[in-house]
Design brief:
Elements: E1 3-10, H1 14-24, H2 29-37, H3 42-62, E2 69-78, E3 82-87, E4 93-98, E5 101-109
Antiparallel strand pairs: 1-5, 2-5, 3-4
């Protein structure tokens, strides 16, 4: 039975989050956490926290073996953007959009 964990309104653009999520898809959870440790930037930290949450949900709520967990799917969807503005010359305004994403990670047990 697959178990999922969702990170809502993570302050990362979905395009950049998908690069990291594609790298861990299909990996065992322990290997994915280990590979995220050596990836630079805040994206890996957010994804690692969501992945650890999914593994904890599987272990505590569904009594799954944490050594047999595998990342089944991992994807990022567009969330609500923060709209800001920056003052420009001649009294004009430049629009700034701060993108966010909803990150979903699904884990399940696999055979050894």
């Amino acid at each position: 039975m697959p178990v999922k964990s969702v990170g809502k309104q993570v302050g990362i653009s979905p395009k950049r989050a998908r690069l990291v999520l594609r790298a861990i898809q299909g990996m065992r959870v322990a290997d994915a956490i280990e590979s995220l440790r050596f990836r630079p930037g805040p994206i890996a930290e957010h994804v690692s926290a969501i992945l650890r949450s999914a593994a904890a949900n599987a272990e505590n709520n569904n009594s799954m073996d944490p050594t047999r967990l595998k990342v089944v799917t991992a994807f990022a969807d567009q969330a609500v953007s923060l709209r800001r503005f920056r003052a420009r010359s001649r009294g004009r305004v430049g629009h700034v959009r701060r993108q966010a994403s909803h990150i979903t990670i699904v884990v399940d047990e696999h055979e050894k």
